[in-house]
Structures are given as C-alpha cells and as structure tokens.
C-alpha cells in the first residue's frame, strides 16, 4: 500500500511540472502587454521600460518561466494586475465560499443518491426505477444556469422566500443568513451531481444483485431491505469513493457557472472576472490550483480505492 | 447489414427513443427553415418590447422587441452546428490518438498517454474560457476550441477497444500474412470500433452543445446580436421579473436537445454493445 502511494506521488511531480509549463505557455499566448496595467499616462518611456525590467518581462520566455516557478515554489503566485493584491491571498480568501458550496452540494447529493440508486436498482425496470432514471436523465441534461434562473424566478422573485444573489445580506453577519443565501446554489449543484451519482449507484446495484452472495442471503431468508441496505450497500459505496475523489477536481470549475449566476463570491466567479479582464496572474493561479486539486483528487481516489479493495495492490 | 437494422429496431422499440428522434428531427428541420419566419431575428423594435407570448409572437418578444420564436430557431442553428462540428473534430482527434496509441503500443503509446494525463490534469472548462477570450469568438473558433478540448475521454475508450481488437485472430492473421499497419487499421480495426464511435459521438454532441451554451451564457461564446440559446438566457436574466418567458424557451430547448442526444446515446450503447446486457 505504502509503495503504491509513493509510486503515485512520484508520478505526480513530472505531471505538475508539465501542467505548470502548459499554464505558463497559455498565458504567454495572450495578446496585450501586462506592463500596461502598471503604466500611468504621465510616465516616460524609460519609466515603462524600468517597470518591465522590474517585472522581469524583458527576459526571454524560459527565463521568465524559471523566475515564475521559483516564486511559485515559495508560495508566491504573483499579483493581480487589477488591484495588485497577491493572487494566493485572493484565492485563499475565496476558498471557503467555494468549498462550503461544493461540500454541501456533494454531501447532499451523496446522501440522496445512495437510497435512490439502491431503490432504482432493486426495482429494475419497474415504474419507480423508470421515474428515478428519467429524473437522472433530466439532471445530466439540464443546463445548470437555466435551472438556476428558474429557481431564482420561483423562489426569489415570485415567492420571495430566498435571496437570489451573493452570500450575505449587507450589514448582516450571521450563519443563518449565509445558509439562506446558499440554499438555491447548493440545490442547483446538488441536483446535477445527484444525477450522475444515482446512475452509478443504480448500475452497480443491478450488478451486485446478480452476485451469488445475494442469492445466498435470500436463501437464508433475508428480506430485500436487509440485503439491500446491509450487504449491497457495502459494495456500492466503493465506486462512490472514486466519484468523491474525482469531484475534488470539480471543486473550482464545477462551480464557475453556478457561482456566476448567483454572484456567489467564490473562486469560480473570481476566475470568470479575471478571464474577462485578462488578469493573467489570477487565471494562472486558479488554473494551477484546480489542476493541483484534480491531481490530488485522483490520487486520493486511487489510494482510498486501494484501501477499500485489497485486490488492487497486486494489480499495479 | 443486419446489425444496423437491429439497432434501428432497438431505437424504435423504446418510447423514449422515438420521442428523442422526433424532437431532434423537429429541431433540425425547424432551424433549417428558420428563414421562413416573417420576423428578422436581429430586428430591433422598441414599440414591441417585452410582449408576452401571443398569436403574432408565439414565444413573445425580448427587451429589444425581437421575436423570440425566430431567435430560438436561429439559435438552434448555432447550437446544432457547433455541436456537430465540434463532435466531428473531437472524434477525429480522439479516435486517431486512441487507435495509434492502442495499435502501436510501446513508446508511442507511452508518450501519448502521458501527454493525455497532462491535458486531463488541466481543468478544460477554464482553458476553454481562456481560449475563447484569446481567440476572437466566432463560430469557427468556438468549434475548434470545444472540439480540441473534448476528445480525451473518447481516446481512452478507443485505445482500450483497440487493444482488445488487436489480439483478435483475424487481425493476427492479417498481420502474419504481411499486411501493412495502415491497411490493418483501416480494414480491420476501424470497422470494429464503429459501435464505440457511434455511441461516443452521440454523447459528444450532447456535451458540445452544453459547452457552447455555457460559454454563450457566460458571454464568451458567439457574440451578440447573433442569437444562441445560451446568450438568450444571459439576456433573460436582466428582465426576469417582467418577462420570465424569455428564460423559459431557450433553456427548455437546450434541455430537450441535450436530453434527446443523451437518451439516444444510451439506447445505442445497449443496442451496439451486447456484452453490456439489457440494463
């Protein structure tokens, strides 16, 4: 087991290196001169060149990359071109909002998906299954921004039960207020996660119910509910672990659209604003950060899966 | 071609399959015939602002007085066109990478799969957003951006399938009898890949359409005044209180289109891959 983790960790290092090269290259392709965001109208040409030299932008691309990488390893992701704040600080400031949103959505989705998937699988091709399956089709096909707009119209405009924008009411600082703001975005995200989880649980339930151990349980006189929730559940949880590991990767990108619709002050909306304004240090920071999460997520999924299913050890 | 007949039988035997095909046909014909509409999709008319659906404007008019029904049809053109074109591009890349990697193996496979891992480690939605700002967003560049970043999943499936096909007796025989690699790939491997390619292509159209809509919704896609379903929804946000119908129709059409492609993809999977069994 330890070997597996060590091996995967070592594989991660070149991966991270190449990812950083690609990020850097993508940004270098960008039109426009980043120096211009530091230039004021009454600056002389020499001043502008001095700014350029200070930023290291007069050097060839590979030297710039090394300088950037050195700072990166010290935890310095650079400074925003718009408000000159350190990028790492901007990302960390927004992390709780995004993590809270995604965490709640994923938790809610898993809690609902397990019973729904088990039931659909157990009543394979019956009407309950058909309804659940159809709902999960809708869930993977519905544009999240449209669902968000419809919910805003219903709950914020028509019924006026919930706020439609932001994370806090100005001047109010309470957890209840944040929760109230979070209900709609969490529901929208949870619905889209839920659907793919349900499909997963359902198809592995159908597979499990064909296994011998289920037949044996029935032969011993177990009732369906017990077989389902005590025995099949254990085997179905395994793929869920992998799904959870992979959803760490969605942490940032999965929330981009939802955060934008609800003006949720998270990393996703920070990213969209940065891309609109070509604030490249922020874009680079967020891309690297989510790539890191994605790699860690896959690593975690592999490792957890290895713990849960001992057969994996010998396979690698 | 008994197989294609049995596939058609499978699609027609399911109510959902028939419904999906009818919906898609209506949409394709409707958007192709959009020019028959008496309204100009981009004609501004302040006098007709924000009319609720009525006999003259079936889906109502938007905040610039444009006919929503006509705009939805023109938007459908963009969505379907971008969906199909990006699908073709990403299938071309995905199948090529998968077949080359799976058939030749060795260092080529190693190189391609490591490269794939790197690409998969960079969140593609961020890159797509970034590229659509860097390149001037128009139909062509959006197709290239979406198509060139949504092939990775396909190439993994194709690679795995090629690995299995390569060991089949008829392929081994063809190789032993001295046929060149290109001949074997085109004559023996690609035909065997048709099922996974058809299923993958159907699902890929769905995700490409979704991607285009998300881009347009965020304002990074096809630029106004040209209608797309995503950008119409973006516009609808501002007038949600007065004109909720502006939001309903474009979104419902995205849902119906993507839903139909997803359902067809799954039905095709069942019909074409017998080993899956009837799930």
What would you note in describing this structure?
By secondary structure, chain A is mostly helical. In chain A, 75% of the residues lie in helices and 0% in strands. Chain A is built from 14 helices and no strands. In chain A, helix 4 packs antiparallel against helix 5 (127-141) and helix 12 runs antiparallel to helix 13. Chain B is mainly α. Chain B has a single domain, classed as MetI-like fold. Chain B has eleven helices and no strands. In chain B, helix 7 packs antiparallel against helix 9. The chains are: A mainly alpha (316), B mainly alpha (279).
Number of strands of chain B: 0
- What does the largest sheet of chain A look like? none
Q: Which regions of chain A contain 5 or more consecutive residues with pLDDT less than 50?
A: none
Run of helices and strands of chain A: HHHHHHHHHHHHHH
Average pLDDT over all residues of chain B: 84
Instruction: Round the Cα radius of gyration of chain A to an integer and report it.
Output: 24 Å
N-to-C SSE string of chain B, H for helix and E for strand: HHHHHHHHHHH
- Whole-Å distance between the termini of chain A? 10 Å
Assembly category: heterodimer
Tell me, briefly, the overall form of chain B.
Answer: elongated
Q: What Rg of chain B, in angstroms, do the CA atoms define?
A: 22 Å
Strand content of chain B: under 5%
Report, as a whole number of angstroms, the end-to-end distance of chain B.
25 Å
**What portion of residues of chain A is helical?**
over 70%
Per CATH, which architecture of chain B? Orthogonal Bundle
């Amino acid at each position: 087991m330890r070997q597996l983790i060590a091996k995967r960790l070592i594989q991660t290092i070149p991966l991270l290196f190449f990812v950083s090269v690609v990020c850097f290259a993508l940004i270098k392709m960008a039109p426009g001169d980043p120096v211009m965001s530091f230039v004021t109208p009454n600056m002389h040409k020499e001043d502008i060149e001095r700014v350029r030299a200070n930023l290291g932008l007069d050097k060839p691309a590979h030297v710039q990359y090394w300088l950037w990488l050195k700072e990166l390893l010290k935890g310095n992701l650079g400074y925003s071109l718009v408000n000159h704040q350190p990028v790492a600080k901007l990302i960390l400031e927004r992390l709780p909002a995004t993590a809270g949103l995604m965490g709640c959505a994923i938790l809610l989705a898993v809690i609902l998906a397990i019973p729904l998937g088990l039931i659909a699988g157990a009543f394979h091709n019956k009407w309950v299954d058909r309804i659940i399956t159809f709902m999960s089709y809708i869930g993977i096909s519905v544009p999240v921004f449209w669902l968000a707009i419809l919910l805003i119209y219903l709950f914020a405009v028509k019924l006026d039960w919930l706020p439609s924008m932001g994370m806090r009411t100005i001047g109010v600082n309470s957890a209840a207020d944040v929760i109230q703001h979070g209900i709609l975005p969490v529901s929208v995200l949870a619905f889209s996660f839920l659907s793919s989880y349900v499909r997963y649980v359902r198809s592995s339930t159908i597979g499990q119910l064909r296994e011998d151990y289920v037949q044996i349980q029935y032969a011993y006189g177990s009732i369906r509910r017990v077989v389902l929730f005590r025995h099949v559940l254990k085997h179905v949880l395994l793929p869920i672990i992998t799904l959870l590991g992979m959803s760490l990767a969605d942490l940032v990108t999965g929330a981009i659209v939802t955060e934008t619709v609800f003006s949720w002050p998270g990393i996703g909306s920070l990213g969209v604003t940065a891309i609109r304004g070509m604030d490249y240090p922020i874009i680079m920071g967020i891309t690297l950060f989510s790539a890191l999460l994605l790699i860690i997520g896959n690593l975690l999924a592999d490792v957890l899966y290895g713990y849960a299913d001992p057969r994996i050890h010998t396979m690698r | 071609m008994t197989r294609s007949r049995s596939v058609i039988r499978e699609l027609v035997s399911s109510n959902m399959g028939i419904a999906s095909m009818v919906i898609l046909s209506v949409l394709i014909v409707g958007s192709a015939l959009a020019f028959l509409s008496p309204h100009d999709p981009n004609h501004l008319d302040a006098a007709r602002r924000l009319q609720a659906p009525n006999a003259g404007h079936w889906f109502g008019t938007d905040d610039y007085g444009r006919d929503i029904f006509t705009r939805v049809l023109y938007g459908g053109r963009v969505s379907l066109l971008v969906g199909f074109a990006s699908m073709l591009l990403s299938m071309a890349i995905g199948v090529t990478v998968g077949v080359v990697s799976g058939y030749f193996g060795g260092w080529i496979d190693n190189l391609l799969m490591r490269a794939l891992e790197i690409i998969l480690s960079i969140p593609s939605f961020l890159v797509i957003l970034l590229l659509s700002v860097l390149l001037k967003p128009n139909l062509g560049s959006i197709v290239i951006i979406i198509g060139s970043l949504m092939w990775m999943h396909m190439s993994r499936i194709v690679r795995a399938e090629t690995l299995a096909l390569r060991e089949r007796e008829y392929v081994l025989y063809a190789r032993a009898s001295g046929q060149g690699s290109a001949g074997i790939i085109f004559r023996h491997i690609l035909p065997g890949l048709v099922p996974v390619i058809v299923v993958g292509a159907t699902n890929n159209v769905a995700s490409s359409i979704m991607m285009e809509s998300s881009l347009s919704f965020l304002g990074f896609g096809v630029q106004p005044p040209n209608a797309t379903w995503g950008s119409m929804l973006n516009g609808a946000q501002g007038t949600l209180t007065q004109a909720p119908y502006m939001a309903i129709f474009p979104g419902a059409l995205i849902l119906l289109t993507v839903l139909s492609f997803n359902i067809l993809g799954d039905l095709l999977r069942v019909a074409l891959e017998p080993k899956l069994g009837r799930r």
